[in-house]
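User: Sequence in, structure out. Go.
Assistant: Echoing your sequence, followed by the structure tokens.
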Amino acid sequence: MDLHAVLLARIEELERIAKAVPYLAARMWDNGRAGVGAVKARQHWTDEARVLIEEHAHLHGPAAVLRGLAEDRDILRRHTAGRWPSVEDGYDAPTCIGCGRDDTGDPRYLVPCPEIESLARRL
């Protein structure tokens, strides 16, 4: 399995998890003993704590995660491997289509390019 396939599988896994969070959170808040404990704890929060929790949820909640994963998919789509330029031009190694060429006309990066390496470290 190549790096693009591994990263795509990881993105799909993280999307599945992020989409399940609202359902799981609703069950935690509304059902069972965990729900009762959470409601009691919530009643004792200060206004400052509520604001911080809301900000954290906005920055790191499922919607934010899904937006970030959509951006990751775009990066992965743009930085695909290809034989560009062709073997006739003297290149037999896969190059990154998304990174383009440098000033001399040569491909900027072989695969994986720095963008994909960065994405792999983050995921």
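User: And one key feature?
Assistant: Strands lie at 81-82, 95-96.
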